[in-house]
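Hello Y.,

Per our agreement to keep a running log of every chain we model this quarter, I'm adding this entry. I've kept the format consistent with earlier entries: sequence first, then predicted structure.
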Amino acid sequence: MLFIPFSLYAQDFGSIKGIITSEKGELLSGVTVQVKSTRLITQTNREGEFYLSKVPVSATLLFSRLGFKDLQLDLGLIADRENTQNIILISDIQALDEVHITERYNASNLKTIDAAAFNIYPQTSGSFESFLKTMPGVSGNNELSSQYSVRGGNFDENLIYLNDIEIYRPMQIYSGQQEGLGFINPDLASSTRFSAGGFEARYGDKMSSILDVRYSKPDSLSLDAQIGFLSSSAALKVPFKNSYFLAGIRNKKNQSLLGTQNLEGDYISGFSDYQFLFRHDLGSKLNLSVFGNYNRGDLNISPNRRLTEFGTSDEVLRLNVNYDGEESSNYESLMAALTLAYNASNSLNFKWISSFSSINEQENKDLLGWYAFNEKNGGLDPKNVGSLLGTGSNLAYRDNFLNTMILNTELRMYKQVRNSFIETGIRFQADKIKDRIDEFNGIDTTGYSLRNSGGWNYSEIINQQHMQEIGRVSGFIQNTFNLRHNLTIAAGIRANYNSYSKENLISPRVSLMYSPGYDDNFLFRFSVGAYSQSPFYREIKRYNGSINPDARSQQSYHFIAGTDYDFNGLGTRLKFSSELYYKILSRITPYKIEDLKIRYLSESTAKGYAAGADFSLSGNFAGDLLSTFRFSVMQTKEDIKNDFYQTTDNTGKQVTIYPGYLKRPSDQLFNIGMMFQDRLMQNPTYKVHLNLIYSSSLPIGPPGPNRYTDLFKIPAYKRVDIGFSKDLADRESKKASVFVKKYFQSLSLHAELFNLLNFKNTASYLWLNDKNANQYAVPNYLTFRKLNFRVIAKLKSR
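Predicted structure for the entry above:
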């Protein structure tokens, strides 16, 4: 027995690393990797990576994760070397009438999104973020924009992460015409997950949602390319022995699409995005990642004429405007990030993340419009202009500039302790904002007056310059553990402090996932937590452009209960998901939305709530083509503190009105969506892709800081986009050419028809008064029917 320790010490050892994925290619985090009959144990990180050192050269590895079949692998390692072994886990198989594969467990309440499906469906914005509008609980009423609202929140309340790096977007965007390409490049994404609320403590301090995207090591060399009438892109993925390189370029020019709007003129638009990610293993325990992004957008409009008809069948109104001048807007975003990951041991990992973002935004506008406002009489004669309601001139002037610089650094630690996975981190951030605002609106209702005549009335005059610096410190600790084999709990707490409001905010959060033993097809999810959003620059600006030094953080509490159920029906395997939620908005900052521009009333505070339910049904009705149907119902209101106004009653007596609870600008009762795919039975290489959205009306009112005037409604948003594709490289097709099969992994042609039914959707309103001082809301319509063609190719690697 004395010689046993010496014989063990003399045994040869090696190290092993790898990436674990599902059979669908999804990166799997939280997979337990253990050397059999030893205490050597670890878990995969969020990139699906694992690492074990001091492993005997003849060892058996055990891989396990709830929802997947356990895997036992006998290995013969090379001593004193770093060995690589990638693993594919197979989803747990349920024996029913037929054999079906189903995943019955999710490590968190985040939903997985297939990034590859983005290029399949017809879409106008060219931004992956707009694809989120197909998710339950998400709404968006502008096909030109990637901005989205989640369960009653606005776009500022959404978090976006790329490889644990928080992403920031331009703030000056006021219309979908200006908005370019979103940040996420779907051609580079290997894993995409989304949560509409109740997310874990490891994520940041926003109140609505989280989009978590991963760029990871590719399996092989690949080159993807896409070209179309509206956009083009290319992506290169190169794996090396101890490193990999990803690069993507995207371009969009949508003046032909903008030309379908009711504003005639010369449009010049150009949007581009360049990204790269390089990762290199500096040793067996240390790796370095470098990420870079350059995003730019330019829009110039020289409008000529606008003719808008609106109203009812009994009262048709017509606005005719002739313009002189032009407007332009551009932004330039630069981002760089550095990540160092260190595997201290099999159960202890560290990650250091530092990033820098700089965004410049410029807005210029000097536009004079002469308008005539008519009530059209009956009849179909287009020359029948009817009675004149008013004439005048309108002048809009803007000369604004905004520079945003954000620098942050963060240290994270991951520790595996038996059945517990502990994560903790601390982050420091510095914001520096330079803002110059010079704008006004002028209106002359007396006729076609010159700009310098005395008939002009000027409003919304803002001339401000600000320089604001804010320091932030935040941290979290979270433990994910299995209380039982079918019960997982993620409990954590966040803390954050900022130098502007000088608040110390604590946010505890708990999530629970339970799969009952009587039926593995069920998964129940419960989440409760506090979510605090410290003020960023836009939240501290008053409606008139000045800064509110007393602005405070917004706070809310989420209560969410959901379930997933897998079953057989309609000839396929279906998945039904539902969530009920109630959000207590204990302290929020009211705001108004003008098209896409969010303008906060930072001098006011309010309390409110958001309550609703989301339902979705998905399945593969045509082979491997996934189709999804969703339905959401929601109500959100707010009560502004000390809000009142005075008016006169029928007797002429002045009375004071306290509005109480008002509908929030995002209050939308119904949201219905469908993403459907099918193929021809006789020729499966021909496919159809249908995207349908119906979103009910939204509250809106005339410009101004008074929320109680938002009694008008933007009509329901209705849109149907359809696409047809032909797969020229289908392996099962006998007609595919030898050349295509030899050089292309995939090659498809796409014909798309946007806004198939030619709905007249409204983005916002132009508010005008007639000669009798009656106010009218003239709709600004979105895009109409448009045909588009695309070619998508993926070259074979040699």
